[in-house]
Design goal:
The strands form five sheets. A seven-stranded mixed sheet has the order 12-13-14-11-10-16-17, sandwiched between helices. With 460 residues, it is an alpha/beta fold. The chain folds into two domains: 251 residues, 3-Layer(aba) Sandwich (Aldehyde Dehydrogenase, Chain A, domain 1); 188 residues, Aldehyde Dehydrogenase, Chain A, domain 2. The protein is globular, with a radius of gyration of 23 Å. Helix content is 42%, strand content 21%. Helix 2 packs across helix 6, helix 3 packs across helix 4 and helix 3 runs antiparallel to helix 6. It contains 15 helices and 20 strands. The mean pLDDT is 97.
Length: 460
Amino acid sequence: MTHVTSAISRNPTTGEVVARYPFASQKEVDAALALTDNAFQQWRNTPLNTRVQLLLAIAGGLRQQSQKLAEMMTTEMGKPIDQALAEVEKSARLCEWYAAHGPAFLQREPTTVEGNKAFVDYLPLGAVLSVMPWNFPVWQVLRGAVPILLAGNSYLLKPAPNVMGCALLLQQILRDAGVAEGLFAVINADNDGVAQAINDRRIKAVTVTGSVRAGSAIAALAGAAIKKCVLELGGSDAFIVLADADLDAAVKGAIAGRFMNNGQLCISAKRIIVEAAVFDAFRDKFVKAVKAMKMGDPRESGVWIGPMARYDLRDELDAQVQATLKEGATLLLGGHALPGEGNYYAPTVLSDVTPEMTSFKQELFGPVASLIVADDAEHAISLANDSEFGLGGSLWSRDLEAAQQLASRIETGGVFINTPSFSDPRVPIGGVKKSGFGRELSHFGLREFTNPQTVWIEQP
């Protein structure tokens, strides 16, 4: 077997190789670990207000380089340029939110215990290794890095191989904003390099966003090394439409929830479960809306659907679609790769999908929607929970009180009523079951990589 020595960044719109990045040697991994550990030793003692000011500088730097960073995303993974620009702006607002609210979450928490004094300090852990995917190469990285840095840790990023250019550009933007060398560092490590880093004493914790297979492998390494690990893995979110829902709003939400980023999201409306009473009406409106989406060159403003990020993933997606059709699903739209230049897959709608079928059981990472009929609300909840995943979910109904009661019965890390699933710094994101454990964002994400140290003072 040929040993792969470099990562390849390939433009999915044209098929052209953008760049090749050699994987780090064992010596280079060790040097990166030394650099990020040294940066932590300085940063941990930096006043909180100084860290806050740095976050604001990062936000400014992101906005200054917004066009360049967005174009890199579009080049490396095919994200439509409008969505890429929105991702950069969202990341800048993330920095500003943590700058405004983060310090309060890190304050000492005093308490009185039987006449004695005790308090809890939230102390940094050290260097955190972050293994990140390609689908949101700015937001996904910064939603973890910003709270990790604010808490006083350093951050070592191992990006997906096909978005190394985005990672390196992001590193330069942070350096220009005043982030010290090694405090936010990028390393192009292969599997051996990742294992080396996790087993090194200088790495104190690991955070992973990616597939179940990757998360399981990395969590096993972290567990063996007895190190904190946060996993945000796959998802097959249910998008439940009850009979009393506003169908036009639900269809609009389903389009955004399923086809944003060309359907390449973990937290996404992959299983669209509709009550039988309104299924036909929803189906017809939804197919019409899918047909109306603009597909084309992601560099052009107004394009909603671009190419899939990697050619192997398009092949995998098509295999899942064809398997589902053989199992008895009905093809309403698409169902095939597009010929010619670029890694395009036709927006696809599968109907009559049932729990034993591939597109119900597996995560489909691309522009494919699965429509599922539910007898009633109870059946819809049962279908939603009939999954090994539990990341997010969406519930559409005009009866908000009943919807809230149903939401608590859905086995996921988040439920969004009358809106598609999304991530926001004000609320935590994370999953249950095979979607992982731990949380990012809000005060939960900020405290994930801290040591809540108890200090007890016995009174005389």
